[in-house]
Amino acid sequence: MFTIYHNPRCSKSRQTLALLEPKAQENQQEITIVEYLKTPLSEDEIKALLSQLSCNPIDMMRTKEDEFKEQNLKGADDATLISAMANTPKLVERPIVSNGDKAIIGRPPENVLAFFAK
Predict the structure, then answer these.
(1) What is the pLDDT along the chain (118 residues), one digit of tens a residue?
(2) A single Pfam family, by name (predicted)?
(3) Cβ-contact 90, 65 below 8 angstroms
């Protein structure tokens, strides 16, 4: 099963979902779509994704958003960044696809095809 943390207004997120859907269907895998702007991630969910991504919080953030600058997050510690993503979902990079063990950021969208590489 795959989970995509998705923003339907984002072209990269839509492209990633379009690449994921046929591949998941071929492999008889279900896709859960989480519109994270409507259903924000908790700090624990963010930490789990960070572990699956094997990255630092800053690598999972949209650092060019006005909210990033307004909250003075440049140089902030990991706990502050995680809290900021939980409280301001717009700061979470999109899309993120998880298979439960590993996660991939769909930028570029073709990154998600790594789940299906043999």
Answers:
(1) 999 999 999 999 999 999 999 999 999 999 999 999 999 999 999 999 999 999 999 999 999 999 999 999 999 999 999 999 999 999 999 999 999 999 999 999 999 999 998 6
(2) ArsC
(3) yes
**Which residue ranges make up each domain of the chain?**
1-36+94-118
Cβ–Cβ contacts within 10 Å for residue 59, how many?
Answer: 13
pTM recorded for the entire structure: 0.95
Nearest residue to 55 via CA among 78, 39, 73: 78
**Cα distance between residue 69 and residue 78, in whole Å:** 16
For the annotated catalytic residues, the residue numbers are 10
Residue 10 buriedness (CB in 10 A; 0-12 / 13-18 / 19+): middle
